[in-house]
Amino acid sequence: MQFIDLQAQYKHLQDKIDSRIRTVLEHGKYIMGPEVQELERQLAEYVGVKHAITCANGTDALQLTMMALDIKSGDAVFCPTFTFFATAEVIAFAGATPVFVDSDEATFNICPQDLERQIEKVIAEGLLTPKAIIAVDLFGLPANYPELERIAKKFGLKLIEDAAQGFGGEINGQKAGSFGDIATTSFFPAKPLGCYGDGGALFTNDDDLAELLRSYRVHGKGSDKYDNVRIGMNSRLDTIQAAILLEKLAEFPTELVKRNKAAEKYTAELSVRFNTPHVPTGYLSSWAQYTLVDENRDAIMAEYKAQGIPTMIYYGTCMHEQTAFKGLGYSHGDFPVAERLARQVFSLPMHPYL
Ligand SMILES: *Cc1c(COP(=O)(O)O)cnc(C)c1O
């Protein structure tokens, strides 16, 4: 059995996907072709925002938010320490300082209480300017945006939603990708909505930010790509990937139901033995991962392996303990909840064709 069975999905959608790819090969508009515009319209409609802007991958999407929000040296950007590296990487890459935040015990997402503590600490120290929060919809569950929006407003910070794993999730019917000032996602093949290579997107309701993001995405373009009004990057989604995503997006609502059915079944069977994932009332997870917590993780993973069931650890190292962030001066023990999660979490196979 596979951890994520992408072939099963391809078999299910093969005729439609093959035909979409053939259309692109025939019209030959491989960069920014009509499928890219069609996908951006459909993504905006699905998420329920004014603008969806595709780009080359989920990391670039986050980097583009740093550029559009003018985040730079001397700025503090708050993010969870228990996340994928890219969330924190883009902050440092922009020259700003990542300020890590502990996790909520029940949801594994950024802890709003610790976030307030960390913001107040940075203000009290007076060395950095608090600028933004990047919240992560870890394993598919949206972060606590009602609280995060209140905190962002209280301290005058921008809020960014890293929905790389969260696409499809909801809070009280509001879709992941629609929270904060800008949201980002990734279409890496293993994400809930994945393509057959690298891909990403940004979402916003702000017309000015959308225009800036579209400019930064193509060499800081003004009226066209040979009129360059700012320093940008080259981060476009390939037309072929957009074509594949159009067919996958059409199937996505059905797949989301299947993922939730699989998760329900896991929880029903496993809750006698494990601490199963907590989905707060009103929340819907897109189940990028189905993650358990156990003190005897290694023994349990070996037990599953012996039965032919693959498991993975997301994530075994918190950001504050990554070698690349040594210079920030954090120590072991700084984030007790996140550190315990890093020691005890493991994920089971999860995909709509399970
Ligand atoms: C996958 C992921 C990213 C980066 O996406 P890529 O498309 O691989 O660049 C960023 N943040 C989180 C939380 C992710 O899981």
The number of distinct helices, counting runs of at least 4 residues, comes to 10
Name the strands of the widest sheet in spatial order: 1-9-8-5-4-2-3
Helix percentage range: 40-55%
Q: Report the CATH architecture of the largest domain.
A: 3-Layer(aba) Sandwich
* Bound ligands, each once: pyridoxal-5'-phosphate
SS-derived structural category:
alpha/beta
Q: How many domain units?
A: 2
Separation, N- and C-terminal Cα atoms: 9 Å
As a whole number of angstroms, the C-alpha radius of gyration is 20 Å
Task: Describe the fold and architecture.
This protein is of the alpha/beta class and 354 residues long. It has 2 domains: 6-100 and 109-248, Type I PLP-dependent aspartate aminotransferase-like (Major domain) (Aspartate Aminotransferase, domain 2, 3-Layer(aba) Sandwich), CATH 3.40.640.10; 252-348, Aspartate Aminotransferase, domain 1 (Alpha-Beta Complex), CATH 3.90.1150. Helices cover 40% and strands 15% of the residues. The chain has helices at residues 6-27, 34-47, 58-68, 85-93, 112-125, 145-155, 207-217, 239-270, 297-306, 336-344, and strands at residues 51-55, 75-80, 97-101, 129-136, 158-162, 170-171, 174-175, 182-186, 200-204, 283-284, 290-293, 345-348. The protein has a 7-stranded mixed β-sheet with strand order 1-9-8-5-4-2-3, with helices on both faces. Strands 7-6-10 form a 3-stranded antiparallel β-sheet, with no helix packed on it. A two-stranded antiparallel sheet has the order 11-12. It is globular. It binds pyridoxal-5'-phosphate. Residues 57-59, 83-84, 86-87, 136, 162, 164-165, 186, 188, 198, 200 line the site of pyridoxal-5'-phosphate (PLP). This is Aminotransferase DegT. GO terms for molecular function: pyridoxal phosphate binding; transaminase activity. The active site is at residue 191.
